[in-house]
UniProtKB/TrEMBL annotation:
Name of protein: DNA-binding transcriptional ArsR family regulator
Domain HTH arsR-type per the UniProt entry, residue ranges: 6-101
Span of the signal peptide: none
Record field: transmembrane: none
Domain of life, source organism: Bacteria
Example GO molecular function: DNA binding
Keyword Transcription applies: yes
Length: 102
């Protein structure tokens, strides 16, 4: 399985990040990642009532916007926030969003 594509830190665009964060399911994924729940796509999405293909779409939107980083470990996809990259690019944005959610 090939590694998923991610934008370089300097190529992360505010409009794409805001679009990615404009969906309730993606905000729930963001909240769970910030709390440190899981890391495996299946664990993070557990209990969110959407079809598997829809969940894959949400992960892809977050990843391609530069909000998350997905790595492969065996057959598992591990997802984590790109907190450092987002803070360097848009200082305080991620913390502001998370403070409103948590």
């Amino acid at each position: 399985m090939r590694e998923p594509w991610h934008p370089a830190a300097d190529d992360i665009k505010l409009a794409e990040v805001m679009h990615a964060l404009a969906d309730p399911v993606r905000l729930e994924i963001l909240t769970r990642l910030a709390r440190g729940e899981g890391g495996n796509c299946g664990e993070i999405g557990s209990g969110i009532d959407v079809h598997k293909s829809t969940m894959s779409h949400h992960y892809r939107v977050l990843r391609e916007a530069g909000v998350t980083l997905t790595t492969m470990e065996g057959r598992s996809r591990l997802v984590r926030l790109r907190r450092g990259d987002l803070n360097a690019r848009f200082p305080g944005l991620l913390d502001s969003v998370l403070n409103a959610l948590l």
